[in-house]
Design a protein that fits this description.
There is one protein chain. This protein is α/β, with parallel strands linked by helices and about 375 residues long. It has eleven helices and 16 strands. α9 crosses α11. The model has no long low-confidence stretch (mean pLDDT about 95).
Length: about 375
């Protein structure tokens, strides 16, 4: 059983901690203040603390004799967004904002560390992993390359993320894919540039871009099996500065999301082939920069089932997620290295209906006790009793 009363006593201090780091957000690999506060708090409860992993990552280790080991992860970085919440604890840093709830994740994992350090009852090791740079900068991969799982072995590793689409306190996960891979592409169409009244004298980069964008939007519908899941979105077209000049260069930017590496291969090869065809037909030169920056987040089936069992100890609203999400998550790197599972914690309420990455988003502090309890339940279910 989970001692919810003991967890409840932790919540007011952790809410204050969360709101403090919300007011002082830090971008990827610059989480020096946040990491320092986390390390200080972990040392205060007697954990072994290692800092500077993968840049600004922190690991606190609780050893309770011989037994298995588990990793519990929270992300610490903020987003380059201007906050518009108007809250008393709003960001004090212009253009930087905890618009994804990583401040809440950090506070909940710290709460779990405090509870487990104080109440024990387990045989084995818990590594509390505080990760930098989740927002597109690959902090999980950086920690792994810096020896995370060699220095802190984990039999399984788990993470949770608040989810505004779910009711507050609800918990969902699923075996297999839960979040998509994330690819980004930049296509540079090169011509010579020239007078708009003399288009026969120069390749038209804008016309080539218009043709190419239409073709790119047929890839998922015509090159991918209809029963497979994939998204390709063009998000930026930039070229030209004057009404009477044909630009020498035009840029197209976009993203691709899917759950299957074979589908990634198919989409990328189709995109490159289309670029070659348009370049030939328009007499332009087309350069493709394609970056597969996050793999798909794939839960180990046994770990996902174990997470659902643990979740039922702290929430009455627990179910298997019916489908994965097309958003991405760099916890995927950890799941490539170790078996584990990624979990969604609902936070939707009347005062907390803004989506992730919205300027008025704020983490819902009312779900903090559920998140702490879930981490504690995981540790107690994954490790034997002492």
């Amino acid at each position: 059983m989970i001692d919810q009363t003991a967890i409840d006593t932790l919540v007011p201090d952790l809410v204050a901690f969360r709101r403090d780091i919300h007011a002082h957000p830090e971008l990827a690999y610059r989480e020096h203040r946040t990491a320092g506060l986390v390390a200080q708090a972990l040392r205060a409860i007697g954990l072994d603390v290692t800092t500077g992993i993968g840049g600004t990552g922190v690991v606190g280790t609780l050893r309770c004799g011989d037994g298995p080991s588990i990793g519990l992860r929270a992300d610490m970085d903020a987003l380059p967004i201007q906050e518009e919440s108007g809250l008393p604890h709003a960001s004090t840093h212009d253009g930087v904002f905890h618009g994804c709830g990583h401040d809440g994740h950090t506070a909940m994992l710290l709460g779990a560390a405090r509870h487990l350090a104080a109440h024990g009852g387990i045989a084995g090791t818990v590594h509390f992993i505080f990760q930098p740079a989740e927002e597109g900068e690959g902090g999980a991969d950086a920690m792994i390359r810096d020896g995370l799982f060699d220095r802190f072995p984990c039999d399984r590793v788990f993470a949770l993320h608040n989810w505004p689409d779910l009711p507050a306190g609800a918990i969902r996960t699923r075996p297999g894919p839960i979040m998509a891979s994330a690819d980004k592409f930049q296509i540079l169409i090169h011509g010579r540039g020239g007078h708009a009244a003399l288009p026969h004298q120069t390749p038209d980069t804008l016309l080539a871009a218009a043709d190419l964008v239409q073709q790119l939007n047929t890839i998922v519908s015509r090159r991918v099996l209809a029963t497979e899941a994939a998204v390709l979105s063009v998000t930026k077209i930039a070229g030209g500065q004057a009404h009477n000049v044909l630009p020498a260069i035009c840029e197209i930017v976009g993203t691709v999301r899917t759950f299957d590496p074979a589908i990634q291969d198919r989409i990328e090869s189709s995109l490159r082939a289309m670029c070659e065809g348009v370049a030939l037909s328009t007499e332009t030169r087309i350069e493709v920069i394609y970056d597969r920056y996050y793999p798909a987040t794939i839960n180990d089936p046994a770990a996902a089932r174990a997470a659902l069992v643990a979740a039922r100890l702290v929430s009455d609203d627990v179910a298997e997620a019916p489908a994965p999400a097309f958003t991405s998550e760099d916890f995927s790197f950890m799941l490539l290295a170790r078996p584990g599972a990624y979990v969604w914690l609902g936070q939707k309420a009347p005062a907390h209906d803004a989506p992730l990455h919205h300027p008025r988003y704020d983490f819902n502090d009312s779900v903090m006790k559920t998140g702490i309890g879930f981490f504690v339940a995981l540790a107690r279910s994954e490790l034997p009793e002492s």
